TrEMBL record:
Keywords: Hydrolase, Serine esterase, Signal. It comes from Niastella koreensis. Residues 1-23 form the signal peptide. The keyword Plastid does not apply. This is 4-O-methyl-glucuronoyl methylesterase-like domain-containing protein. Residues 232-377 form the 4-O-methyl-glucuronoyl methylesterase-like domain. The keyword Signal applies. It comes from the Bacteria. The lineage of its organism: Bacteria, Pseudomonadati, Bacteroidota, Chitinophagia, Chitinophagales.
């Protein structure tokens, strides 16, 4: 009888322990007092044991080493291309937005023969700027037609992940036109003298686990000589940003030396990988990119590697998922991804209610990456405590935490435009 009870107790204890271990593995934490201590890999520590002491060592040894770690563990290979894109101007209006801008819609054909493989770029150029304009490049989440109410902007016929207003059976309808103007602040961007180039991220690959079967990882497999599992959805999206840069370099109204990249959330992660992979992007903005982007995976707060790879297995290469159980084995962390932007200006932004992206982790990551900027004589973020709300800090690396939710707001754009004007040496 006693033995029996002991046995039952032992079984119960085992089950409880197993459940607790599992619960500790899986959940996310949003209680700062529960964040356990952690140690980040030292971004300046070379594999041969030495510490990087100058920009030359960084550029020629440490940076390629860290970039390779990202290829291997998180994003896969970034296929090289011999400018395969062809461009077709589908539409132009030099009196768009009541004369404020010239609108162009450009189709970028990505396949040498198959004309069904393309992405459509919506470009607004500021009419008041008579010289080639600096430009912000940023993907949109639900089609070019959502960023403005202008009637002539082509309605995307692609599959839509987000089922917002006007999306029926995962396809856009006319009712979706202009439904996301708040995230874009077109008039502000243009009146500050910047152009804006945007494209729908789903033009490259639908945002699902099987999206690769119809996306560029399949349609361009032979052209780019890369198998779908050698890269990932994030990689495909990032690569598409480089194709936008290909076009912008050919447009005489654009200053190709002043191409800034901005990305929000999942597209912020893709943006950071594009910034790391393509030096033509002269300035990079991460808006609440969170886990797998600017945030620190080793800091147990908000989304985790385990959660993100369970929900979005296609976003990263399969290897990334293997670190879910023990993130200390991951050879990289968010600060190392940010460091790959150096010495180019970098803006990292969070929102206070967006705990899922771990604002503090994003801040600490930007601060840590600033050590690399110091090698170039550039000042990044040198304060160790989080700044107050709505108070940007830092110079070549800048950070803010905004009041409010996970979004891109007018406040965010105002900071990015000011930052880009300063960093590009423009008087705006
Ligand atoms: C969430 C995801 C985040 C972030 C976000 C978004 O569901 O967990 O990593 O990328 O989506 O893109 O809106």
């Amino acid at each position: 009888m006693k033995n029996n009870r002991t046995c039952k107790l032992a079984v119960l204890l085992f089950v409880v322990t197993a459940m607790t271990a599992r619960a500790q593995n899986f959940p996310s934490n949003t209680d700062e007092s529960k964040v356990p201590p952690y140690t980040l890999p030292d971004v300046l520590q070379m594999p041969i044991g030495k510490t990087v002491i100058n920009s030359n060592q960084w550029l020629h040894a440490q940076r390629p080493y860290i970039y390779h770690l990202y290829e291997k563990n998180q994003f896969g290979r970034y296929p090289a291309t011999k400018t395969i894109s062809r461009f077709k101007i589908l539409e132009t209006d030099n009196q768009a937005l009541d004369g404020l801008a010239t609108r162009k819609q450009v189709r970028i054909y990505l396949h040498p023969a198959d004309t069904s493989v393309y992405m459509d770029v919506l470009l607004y150029l500021p009419n008041a700027v008579k010289t080639p304009a600096p430009v912000f490049v940023a993907y949109n989440f639900s089609g070019n037609h959502t960023i403005t109410a202008e009637k002539n902007v082509l309605l995307s016929n692609r599959w839509m992940y987000f089922r917002g207003k006007g999306v029926v059976n995962n396809r856009a309808t006319e009712a979706a036109r202009g439904t996301d103007t708040a995230s874009w602040q077109l008039k502000t961007i243009l009146s500050k003298g910047f152009a804006l180039a945007t494209a729908y991220y789903g033009d490259l690959e639908p945002d699902t686990a099987t999206g690769y079967t119809t996306g560029i990882r399949t349609t361009l497999k032979e052209v780019l000589n890369i198998q779908p599992d050698e890269w990932c959805t994030m990689g495909a999206w990032a690569w598409g940003l480089s194709r936008i840069a290909d076009y912008l370099q050919t447009d005489k109204n654009i200053d190709a030396g002043k191409i800034a990249l901005m990305g929000h959330s999942r597209l912020g992660k893709a943006t950071l990988w594009a910034g790391a992979s393509d030096p033509r992007f002269a300035l990079i903005v991460s808006n609440e990119s969170g886990e797998g982007g600017a945030a620190l995976s080793r800091r147990w707060y908000g989304e985790t590697v385990q959660i993100i790879t369970a929900h979005f297995p296609h976003w990263f290469v399969a290897k990334y998922k293997t670190y879910g159980d023990d993130v200390t084995k991951l050879p990289v962390d968010g600060h190392m991804l940010l460091s790959l932007m150096a010495p180019r200006p970098l803006y990292v932004a969070s929102a206070v209610e967006d705990t899922w992206s771990d604002p503090k982790g994003e801040f600490l990551s930007a601060r840590e990456a600033s050590r690399v900027y110091a090698l170039f004589g550039k000042k990044g973020i040198d304060t160790s405590s989080m700044p107050p709300l709505n108070t940007p800090v830092g110079e070549t690396v800048r950070y803010h935490i905004r009041s409010g939710k996970h979004a891109v707001t007018l406040y965010d754009w105002e900071q990015y435009l000011k930052f880009a004007s300063e960093q590009f040496g423009l008087r705006r």
